[in-house]
Write a structure and sequence with these properties.
heterodimer, A: MetI-like fold, MetI-like fold, 2 domains, B: alpha/beta, Rossmann fold, 8 helices
Chain lengths: ~525, ~230
C-alpha cells in the first residue's frame, strides 16, 4: 500500500494529545497513589454522591422540560427581537457562574426582588440556598443551551413537512404526534445527557449556593477535604468517584448528542402554518416572555446594581481584574496550542488517539487535575506561587472539548478542499500552515479563542484550591467579597467581570470574522 | 514520453488497469462513461492515487513513488483550484514559489502570466471578486508559471458555459503548444476532444485504452465508444 502524501504533519497533534493524556491521567494517578489504603467512603461522601446526582438530574429535567416549550414557541412565533433573543441564548454559556449567582441572588434571594414583592403581601421571603438554589442556578445557566439544542431540532425538520402538514390540515395533536414527537425523541435524550453531564461537575454554583452536609457536590467535597482538612486520601477517593461519574456521563452524552448548540442558522425564520390561532400565539408569547424575563432579569439586576458601585471599586478588585485578563490570555493561547495541532491531526485522519484525548478533556475534573498538580509540584515550588499558571493550564484543558468541536470540522474541510492543490504545487508543510491552514481557519480559531478566554475569565474552580491570601482572579475576589458580606463591591466586580468576559469573546470572535472568506 | 507499464491503480476497492505510452507534446483527451476511472487515471499520474502494481515513468526515470509536488505534473481539479483567501496574483505566485517568497523579477513573471491570459491589472482581486471564466484564467496563469511538462486537467471548466469552455480549452491548447507541454484532459464531451485533442484515451470497464488518433477513433469507433456516444 502506497503512502498517502499529506499537506500537514500529524506529529504535533499526537504530541499535544499525549501531553493532554499525561496531564489528566498523570494527575489522577498521583492522587490515587496518595490515597491511603483502607479509607472507605464515609456517610458524608455518600451524601455528596447522592446530592450530585440528584441535583444534576433535576437540573437536566427542568432545563430540558422547559426548553421544549420555549423552543417550540421560538420556532413558530415571529416577533420583533426574536433574532436578538436567540443570540442572547448564547450568552449564559460564557457567563461567569459567579455573576449568574449574584444576579440570581438579587432577584430570588432573601433580600431580592421576588422576596420584596412577597413581603408586600406579608409573605415570608424565598430561600435560595440549598438544593433548590443550586437547581435554580443550573436551570438559569442551562435552559438556554437546552433551548438552542431543541431549536436546532426544529430547524432540521424539512420545510416540506410543514407544507404537507398545512395541506393535510393537521391539528395541534397531529402536529405533535407526527412531527414534533419524532423530532423530540431524537433531540431530547442528547440534551438531557449534556445538561446532566455539565451539572455533575458543578463546583462554583455549589460553592456559593450549596454547602453544608445536605447540599455538597463531589467537586465541592474534594475542595473542602483538600483545603480545610488537607485530607489527600479522602480527596483522592472523591476524585476517583467524580471521574467515574463524569466519564460515564460524558460517554453517554457524546453518544446521544447531535448538535453542539453553537451552530449558526438558528435565527433563520421557517415558514410555518400551524400555531396561528390566538390561543396558541398567546401561549407561545407567554413562554417566550417568561423565559426572557428569567434570563434577562438577573443580568439586568447585575447591570443596575453594579453600575452604581463601579466607580468606587476597591483597588483589590481592579488588580484581580488585571490578573484575570492575564490568566485568561495565557489560557487561551495554551488552549489553541493544544487544540489546533490536534484538530489538524484529526483532519489528517488520525482519529483514535486524538479523540480519546479529547474525551478525557470532557471527563476530566478541574479539581482532580488541580489536586494532582498540587501534590506533584509541592516538593519543588510553593503551590500558592503556582496558583496562576496552574489555573491557566487547567482552564485551557477545560476549554479544549469546545475548541475541538469548533476547529475539527473546519480543519477537515480545509485539508479536504485545499490539500491536493497544495500538494500538487509542492507546498511544504510550513507553507501550507502559514498560507492556507491558519488563514482559512481564522474565523474558527478566533471563535475558539474567544470562548476559551471567556471561559477562563469567569472560572472559579482550581484557583480557589490553590490561591494564597494575596493572589486572586476576579471571580475569586468577588467570592471573597461575598463571603465578607460586601455585596455592593461584589456587584460592581460582577459587572466588571461580565463586561470583560463578554467583551473578550465579542472582540475575538468579531475580529476573526472580519473579511473572512469561505 | 509518459509511460504507464502494467499499472493497476487502486481507488478504495475500484481498480483501473493502464498500460500505454503518450508522446511528448501531445494533447490527449481522456474520454469515457462516468464513474469508469477517468479521474482516477489522472490522479494516479499526478500522485494522488496509489499505484499498487506497475510503474509510471517520464522521459526515462520512474516517478511512481514521488510526492505529487515532486512530479513533472501540474493538475487542475474539477473545483477548488484557487485559494479563496489569496489574491489572484498570490494564487499564481504559488506556482513559482509555494512559500510565496518571490523576488521582484518573479512577481513580474506573475504579472506577465496574468496579462497573457487576459487579466492584466486584476492581480489584486480575490477569487470571490472574479467571474467563473476569470477564475479559470487565473488557474491557467498558474499552470503557465509552474512550467511543468505534463498538464492534467480534470474537467476544470465543467461549470462554465459551452462558449466559455471552448474558449478556455483553446487557450489551454495554445499555451501547451507554446511551452511544449503534454496535456491530459478528462472530458465528457466528444466535441471537446475533436476540437483540441490530437489523441484520445478511452476509459471503460476498468481499463484505460492506449491513445488513438482522434480522427481515426471517431471515424471508426469501437463498440464501447459507440455505446457511450449513443450510436447503438
Amino acid at each position: 500500500m502506497a503512502r498517502r502524501a499529506q499537506p500537514l504533519t500529524a506529529a504535533p497533534g499526537i504530541g499535544a494529545a499525549g501531553f493532554l493524556a499525561a496531564l489528566i491521567l498523570g494527575t489522577l494517578a498521583t492522587v490515587a497513589w496518595r490515597a491511603e489504603a483502607g479509607v472507605g467512603l464515609t456517610v458524608a461522601d455518600w451524601a455528596a454522591l447522592r446530592f450530585t446526582v440528584v441535583q444534576a438530574g433535576l437540573s437536566a429535567l427542568l432545563s430540558v422540560g422547559l426548553a421544549v416549550f420555549v423552543a417550540r414557541a421560538l420556532a413558530r412565533l415571529r416577533f420583533a427581537g426574536r433574532r436578538a433573543l436567540i443570540a442572547l441564548l448564547g450568552v449564559p454559556f460564557i457567563l461567569p457562574v459567579i455573576v449568574a449567582v449574584l444576579g440570581l441572588l438579587q432577584v430570588f434571594g432573601r433580600g431580592g426582588w421576588i422576596s420584596d414583592l412577597l413581603g408586600l403581601w406579608g409573605l415570608p421571603p424565598v430561600r435560595i440556598y440549598g438544593l433548590h438554589g443550586v437547581v435554580l442556578a443550573h436551570v438559569f445557566l442551562n435552559l438556554p443551551l437546552a433551548t438552542r439544542l431543541i431549536l436546532q431540532g426544529w430547524q432540521e425538520v424539512p420545510a416540506e413537512r410543514f407544507r404537507l402538514a398545512a395541506q393535510l390540515r393537521f391539528g395541534p395533536w397531529a402536529m405533535f404526534r407526527l412531527i414534533e414527537a419524532p423530532m423530540l425523541r431524537q433531540v431530547v435524550p442528547g440534551a438531557l445527557a449534556v445538561v446532566f453531564a455539565i451539572c455533575l461537575s458543578s463546583f462554583a454554583v455549589a460553592l456559593t449556593l450549596g454547602g453544608g452536609p445536605r447540599a455538597t457536590t463531589i467537586e465541592l467535597a474534594i475542595y473542602q477535604s483538600f483545603r480545610f482538612e488537607f485530607n489527600l486520601g479522602r480527596a483522592a477517593l472523591l476524585s476517583g468517584m467524580q471521574i467515574a461519574l463524569t466519564a460515564t456521563a460524558a460517554m453517554v452524552a457524546l453518544r446521544l448528542a447531535r448538535g453542539t448548540g453553537f451552530d449558526g442558522g438558528m435565527d433563520r425564520p421557517l415558514q410555518r402554518w400551524d400555531g396561528r390561532s390566538a390561543t396558541a400565539r398567546a401561549i407561545d408569547a407567554a413562554w417566550i416572555g417568561l423565559a426572557a424575563a428569567f434570563l434577562i432579569l438577573p443580568l439586568a439586576a447585575i447591570a443596575t446594581s453594579g453600575l452604581a458601585h463601579l466607580p468606587g471599586l476597591p483597588q483589590l478588585v481592579w488588580r484581580a481584574a488585571a490578573v484575570s485578563l492575564a490568566v485568561a490570555g495565557v489560557s487561551m493561547v495554551l488552549s489553541l496550542m493544544i487544540a489546533l495541532p490536534m484538530a489538524g491531526a484529526v483532519a489528517l485522519g488520525r482519529h483514535g488517539l486524538i479523540e480519546v484525548a479529547g474525551m478525557l478533556g470532557l471527563a476530566a475534573s478541574p479539581l482532580v487535575i488541580g489536586t494532582g498538580l498540587f501534590i506533584l509540584l509541592r516538593p519543588f515550588a510553593d503551590p500558592a506561587a503556582m496558583a496562576l499558571p496552574v489555573t491557566a493550564l487547567v482552564n485551557a484543558v477545560m476549554a479544549l472539548p469546545f475548541a475541538l468541536r469548533i476547529l475539527v470540522p473546519r480543519a477537515r474541510e480545509v485539508v479536504e478542499r485545499h490539500g491536493r492543490l497544495a500538494l500538487s504545487l509542492g507546498m511544504g508543510r510550513w507553507a501550507f500552515l502559514r498560507l492556507v491552514f491558519l488563514p482559512a481557519m481564522r474565523a474558527q480559531i478566533s471563535f475558539a479563542a474567544g470562548l476559551a478566554m471567556a471561559l477562563s475569565m469567569g472560572d472559579l474552580g482550581v484557583i480557589a484550591l490553590f490561591a494564597g491570601a494575596e493572589t486572586a482572579t476576579l471571580p475569586l475576589e468577588i467570592y471573597r467579597l461575598m463571603g465578607a458580606y460586601r455585596m455592593d463591591a461584589a456587584a460592581g466586580g460582577a459587572l466588571l467581570l461580565l463586561v470583560l468576559s463578554v467583551g473578550c469573546f465579542w472582540v475575538l470572535d468579531r475580529g476573526g470574522r472580519w473579511h473572512a472568506e469561505a | 514520453m509518459l509511460k504507464l507499464e502494467n499499472c493497476v491503480i487502486d481507488n478504495g476497492g475500484f481498480r483501473l488497469a493502464a498500460d500505454f505510452t503518450v508522446e511528448r507534446g501531445r494533447i490527449i483527451a481522456v474520454l469515457g462513461p462516468s464513474g469508469e476511472g477517468k479521474t482516477t487515471l489522472l490522479e494516479a499520474i499526478a500522485g494522488f492515487q496509489p499505484v499498487i502494481r506497475g510503474t509510471i515513468s517520464w522521459r526515462g526515470p520512474e516517478i511512481t513513488a514521488l510526492d505529487p509536488g515532486a512530479r513533472p505534473v501540474a493538475m487542475l481539479f474539477q473545483d477548488g483550484n484557487l485559494f479563496p483567501h489569496l489574491t489572484a496574483a498570490r494564487n499564481v505566485a504559488l506556482g513559482l514559489r509555494p512559500n510565496l517568497r518571490l523576488t521582484p523579477a518573479e512577481w513580474q513573471t506573475v504579472e506577465a502570466a496574468l496579462t497573457r491570459v487576459g487579466l492584466a491589472g486584476m492581480g489584486g482581486r480575490k477569487p470571490a471578486a472574479l467571474s467563473g471564466g476569470q477564475r479559470a484564467r487565473v488557474a491557467l496563469a498558474r499552470l503557465m508559471v509552474q512550467r511543468r511538462d505534463i498538464l492534467a486537467l480534470d474537467e476544470p471548466f465543467a461549470a462554465l458555459g459551452p462558449a466559455l469552455k471552448a474558449e478556455m480549452l483553446a487557450l489551454v491548447a495554445e499555451l501547451a503548444r507554446e511551452s511544449g507541454a503534454t496535456v491530459l484532459m478528462v472530458s465528457h464531451a466528444p466535441e471537446d476532444a475533436r476540437s483540441v485533442a490530437d489523441e484520445v484515451i478511452f476509459v471503460s470497464d476498468g481499463r484505460a485504452q492506449p491513445p488513438v488518433k482522434t480522427a481515426d477513433l471517431f471515424a471508426n469507433p469501437p463498440a464501447a465508444l459507440r455505446a457511450y456516444l449513443g450510436q447503438g
